[in-house]
Amino acid sequence: MALPNKVLPGFSAALWMQTGATPTALTVTQLSTWTAEVQNIVGTAAGGSGSAGEIVPVEGIPAFGQDDASANFGVAGSRQSDIIPTQSKPTSMTINAAWNPSDPALLLIRGDAYNGTIDRTYVISVYDGANVVAYAFNGRVGEFKIETATNAEAKCTFTIHPRGNQYGWSNNT
Amino acid sequence: MTTQQNVLDYATAIQAQLSAVANPVPVYANFNRNFASQPKFVTWQLRNVHQPVYTGQVQSIKGIDTPIFQASVFGQQMQDAFGIANTIIQALHGYSGQFGGSGGFDVSKIDINWLYNTYDDQVKLHQIILDCRMYIPC
Fold first, then answer.
1. Which residues of A touch B58 (CB under 8 A)?
2. Between B7-22 and B78-92, two packed helices, what is the crossing angle to 10 degrees?
3. Of A12, B47, B83, B102, whose CB is crowded by the most CB atoms within 10 A?
4. Which positions in chain A touch B57 (Cβ < 8 Å)?
């Protein structure tokens, strides 16, 4: 099998999370290891096994990755200064989900938000029907709000703050 | 995680609920073939069935359904048509609870929008069109 080599629609991405109220987050090495590690968190619908993970019923996957930060330096004798990337944080993900008060994944996230210090491994899978690319990271939940607009379904909003340097890419090839 | 609702349940419940509300005025789906001889009746149609589908490959990640059934009130007398329409609005606008009797389902709310009333000179019937949106938890 080969990596998906095509442009995919945005909704082919899905968010998965480790189960358990007090999970053991994957190590940095494991975050980059598909077989028996990331694979266990991704469900069968996206090419994984799902033995240690479950789907998070989110409306869409927000932007993820690395924030920007830089510093300017004046260089003597040069017309242009120099701009250097500096240490920056991973992008926080603020996520909307239709609120089902009994959904097991949302209950775990709600618990994480109240706790504040639980590290949990999340995986964003992108699946073309046969092959999957996975971005795994460890994160803590920093927000959990429920919005009940009267003319629509109830939503919950939560923010996952990824831990620095705790991420990995893998695939099922 | 939500399931796709059964539209046949919708239709059965709408017929049952409207019949109970409008009683003794008869209720029909789509069309009354005896329109020329019945002085007043109600028909209904269902539309806009749609549960939004969210991201990912898991089919059950959906939102709630908010379908609309259009109730069309017919009457040879204008006051009959307005009276039936008022009965439906009084009974169902803002209604929350079991919909369609014991075989039905729960609605969080029904929101009725009176679109217009009109008169058809060919069939000699006053008509009132009510859009009834159901918010169905799932």
1. 14, 43, 45, 55, 57
2. 120
3. A12
4. 12, 14, 45-46, 127
**Token pair 């329409």: residue:** B85
Q: What's the CATH fold of domain A12-63+91-171?
A: Pnp Oxidase; Chain A (2.30.110)
Partners of residue A159 on adjacent β-strands: A94, A143
Predicted model pTM: 0.87
Which helix or strand (DSSP H or E) is residue A107 part of?
Answer: helix A104-115
Can you give the pLDDT of all 173 residues of chain A as single tens digits?
457 788 888 999 999 999 999 999 999 999 999 999 999 999 999 999 999 999 999 999 999 999 999 999 998 888 989 899 999 999 999 999 999 999 999 999 999 999 999 999 999 999 988 889 999 999 999 999 999 998 889 999 999 999 999 999 999 88
Using a CB–CB cutoff of 8 Å, tell me whether A9 touches chain B: no
CATH for B7-135 is: 3.30.2000.20
DSSP label at A34? I
Residues of A whose CB is below 8 A from B61: 55, 57-58
Render B73-130 in DSSP notation, one character per residue: EEESSHHHHHHHHHHHHHHHTT--EEESGGGSEEESEEEEEEEEEEEETTTTEEEEEE
User: 């949990």: which residue's tokens?
Assistant: A120
Neighbouring C-beta atoms of residue B37, cutoff 10 Å: 7
Per the CB < 8 Å rule, is B1 touching A60?
A: no
Of B53, B61, B63, the CB nearest to A153: B63
